[in-house]
Amino acid sequence: MELKALRYLKAVVEAGSFARAATRLGLNSSNLTRQISSLEDELGLTLLERSRSGVRLTSGGAAVMIEVRRVLADLDAIAKAARTNGAGKHGEFRLGLRIPPVGDRLRTLLRKWRLEHPDVSITICELPDHELCNAVLRRTRRPTARSTTS
To answer: What is the DSSP code string of 45-61?
Structure first.
């Protein structure tokens, strides 16, 4: 089952006709009709009742559409989470320092960051150079346990 077929089905249902959905999607009506027919064949279920006045969901199609809307909403939420985290607007920011995290400059910078990014948590770790390097390379929250040799 292709994701685009689910998006196309949703577009057809929302538009109420293949022609209007095709126009909104920038597709040819016959291509859109074939995509939906293929989806129906794959599912083994008629999703839409077609008429001259447009389309409407069958009872089975209505049940499928509940899940289609849920899946598409979940995928949109995943994409949004990726965008906001990737843009630094949400998530976690880990700051590794090789000096004690004190001083007016750092406090001012962190205060400004907090005001501009209220949905981003900041974790600060003071580490020796080699542990800092290892943590960055391993993308860990904490340095690896120290091993001691006698």
So the answer is: S--EEEETTEEEE-HHH
Q: How far apart are CA 19 and CA 95, in angstroms?
A: 54
Instruction: Write out residues in the chain with pLDDT < 50, as ranges.
Output: 143-150
Whose CA is closest to 19, among 49, 52, 43? 52
Instruction: Report the run of H or E that residue 124 belongs to, with start and end.
Output: strand 120-126
Summarize pLDDT for 25-43 with one digit per residue, the tens.
Answer: 999 999 999 999 999 999 9
Contacts of 104 by beta carbon, 8 Å cutoff, 6+ apart: none
Angle at 36 between CA 32 and CA 38, to 5 degrees: 115
What are residue 101's DSSP bridge partners? Answer: none
- What lies within 8 Å, CB to CB, of 20 at 6+ separation is none
Residue 135: HSE in the Cβ half-sphere, 13 Å Cα cutoff: 21
Distance, CA of 119 to CA of 85 (rounded, Å): 10
Nearest CA-CA partner of 24 in 40, 6, 8, 1? 8
